[in-house]
């Protein structure tokens, strides 16, 4: 019902307010459902020029990092752009593109962030890629991308370049935390990092001697960035 209100072609402010209310009730009932938080963020950011990107980001950030699938990352990026935070937006979109490299709309918004960062060559590459992917999906040129290409070529100065790759030193690091939950039947759980409060996925095969952990057990672990977010490569249980 909330999505129907947001998708109405002749939506009025009252529709958005009603949708937000309904979605807040949903997250109260099912706070662990990532889609509920995403929908609430979408409601807050509906018509971003008049929406509330700060509230939208707060909703999106309730989704644990390991569950921030591409469409959630994309939504977060749009909020950052609305707040004038082009670098943060570009980083989120870069993550989304790594996981869904064939989606033209990730490339399109990534290009807009790059334009805001005044990285001409990278913006042109992203726009050309967006046009290519759009053509593969729809069988025609992406006119918005072509028009933006002409604009960028005519207005931006070349030279600047930004890297979005994670530095090797940050790929794996030893951290400390406590087991927040563990599913014995499925053999996986999550560690709550004591430094930044992040939930980090781990599998029993990564636990030293495969000792079954208990909730609350303090751990030392090696944190890595995987395709679905933070994960533990090795886990040591520090107490029984």
Quick overview of this protein structure:
This protein has 240 residues and is of the alpha+beta class. Helices cover 48% and strands 17% of the residues.
User: What average pLDDT do the residues reach?
Assistant: 82
Distance between the termini: 48 Å
Number of strands: 5
Overall structural class, as computed from helix and strand content, comes to alpha+beta
What is the radius of gyration? 21 Å
CATH superfamily of the domain at 168-237: Nucleic acid-binding proteins
Could you give a short account of the major beta sheet? 5 strands, antiparallel
Count of DSSP-assigned helices: 9
Do you know the CATH architecture of the domain at 168-237?
Answer: Beta Barrel
Helix and strand run: HHHHHHHHHEEEEE
List unreliable stretches of 5+ residues: 1-11
CATH class of the domain at 168-237: Mainly Beta
The CATH topology of the domain at 168-237 is given as OB fold (Dihydrolipoamide Acetyltransferase, E2P)
Please give the share of residues in helix.
Answer: 40-55%
The strand order across the widest sheet is 3-2-1-4-5
Q: How would you sum up the global shape?
A: elongated
Estimate what percentage of residues fall within beta strands: 15-25%
């Amino acid at each position: 019902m909330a999505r129907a209100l947001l998708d109405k072609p002749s939506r009025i402010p009252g529709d958005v307010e009603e949708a937000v209310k309904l979605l807040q009730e949903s997250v109260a009932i099912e706070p662990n459902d990532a889609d509920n938080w995403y929908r609430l963020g979408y409601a807050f950011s509906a018509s971003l020029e008049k929406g509330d990107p700060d509230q939208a980001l707060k909703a999106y950030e309730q989704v644990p990092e390991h569950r921030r699938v591409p469409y959630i990352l994309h939504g977060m990026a749009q909020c950052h752009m609305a707040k004038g935070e082009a670098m943060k937006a570009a980083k989120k979109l870069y993550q989304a593109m790594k996981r869904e490299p064939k989606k033209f709309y990730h490339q399109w918004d990534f290009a807009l962030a790059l334009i805001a960062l005044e990285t001409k060559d990278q913006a042109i590459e992203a726009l050309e890629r967006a046009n290519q992917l759009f053509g593969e999906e729809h069988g025609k040129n992406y006119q918005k991308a072509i028009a933006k290409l002409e604009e960028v070529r005519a207005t931006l100065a070349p030279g600047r370049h930004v890297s979005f790759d994670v530095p090797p030193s940050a790929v794996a690091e030893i951290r400390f935390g406590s087991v927040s939950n563990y599913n014995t039947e499925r053999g996986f759980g999550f560690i709550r990092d004591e430094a930044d409060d992040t939930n980090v996925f781990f599998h029993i095969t990564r636990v030293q001697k495969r000792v079954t952990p208990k909730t609350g057990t303090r751990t030392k672990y090696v944190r890595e960035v995987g395709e679905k977010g933070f994960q533990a490569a090795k886990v040591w249980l520090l107490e029984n």
